[in-house]
Amino acid sequence: MIIETLSVFPGVFSPYLDASIMGRAQAKGIFSFSAYDLRDWTHDRHRTVDDAPFGGGQGMLMKPAPIFEAVRDISSRAECAPHVVFFSPCGRRFDEGVAERLSHEERLLFVCGRYEGMDERAYSLADDVLSLGDYVLTGGELPALVVIDAVVRLLPGALGDEMSARDESFSDGLLEYAQYTRPADYDGQRVPDVLLSGDHGKVNAWRRMSAIERTARWRPDLLDGAGLSEEEWELARQAMCEGNDQQGPDNEGPAAEGE
């Protein structure tokens, strides 16, 4: 896969994408990466990429001309045209399904906005407009890195273990099951006995139940699309009731699931 970014801060990408899993995936040729500086497509001595908005208002908008010229020029540099991705609060909420879809593209170009945003006409270049959530960042570089990471880890060979990406949160509509490592007993908290049993059938069944319980407690909105059986729905409803009893007004639980 060819991955490219267009930004006024092209240097922010390599420190992350050259490290760890992303760096190894590049070294193995699973994807190639290029970062382009939007200012290279300006034509004034100050390399200006922004201007005041028509009609007044706060902040500066990114001008359309450099973006159009850059995207068209970059697109012509390889045989296959890139799938162009912009970021905006108006965009579709990014999720694992979008990552899976993008992982099948041959070439991705991420256009990163800054300042007060972009001239609306620039969005006509986009094949996808995405949003990470209902909050505002100073630019599109961090969203681009998030999407690149989520996409690359789905590419064959990127994680080393082909099943790894298919065995995590959201891959089957549920959060991932609880996981433990050594020691088996720490600070009075013991790992569930079934995980020490060596019985893979029982372990898999426990993991399924654990995933349902965790999803019901922390992200019940995901359950409708998870294809649960009636027995599993009963487990989910019980977990939701227990979670509500435990949280109460002074203990609302985590705002988001992290891995």
From TrEMBL:
Its main location: cytoplasm. Its EC number is 2.1.1.228. It comes from the Bacteria. Residues 238-259 are annotated as: Disordered. It is found in: Cytoplasm. Keywords: Cytoplasm, Methyltransferase, S-adenosyl-L-methionine, Transferase, tRNA processing. The keyword Iron-sulfur does not apply. GO terms for biological process: methylation. It catalyses: guanosine(37) in tRNA + S-adenosyl-L-methionine = N(1)-methylguanosine(37) in tRNA + S-adenosyl-L-homocysteine + H(+). Specifically methylates guanosine-37 in various tRNAs. Homodimer. This is tRNA (guanine-N(1)-)-methyltransferase.
